[in-house]
Amino acid sequence: MEKYNQDEIDKNLQNFTGWEYKNNAVERSFLFKDFSEAFGFMTRVALIAETLEHHPDWSNVYNKVTMRLSTHDAGGVTEKDFAFVKKVEGLFASEMLG
Prior knowledge:
Blueprint: H1 6-13, E1 20-22, E2 25-31, H2 35-52, E3 57-61, E4 64-69, H3 79-97
Antiparallel strand pairs: 1-2, 2-4, 3-4
Helix pairs in contact: 2-3
């Protein structure tokens, strides 16, 4: 998979709120009511990661989940990362509405 250039990254970022390009990865933080909701979200994201065979670098502190995506084999951000972002955004939106 080929690494995106800056123009491709910027174009894709326009489709998603809250994501930014930093240190050769796209990243975003998600805030939840409490630790339990944050951890539940991470569990559901883990299932997405397994399905896509692509895993985020992430951290969790109480109600905040921070996620970074980069395709290590390509040495940067690729289509694979934005496919992951799209699935995670769909999950997050459904959890906030549900």
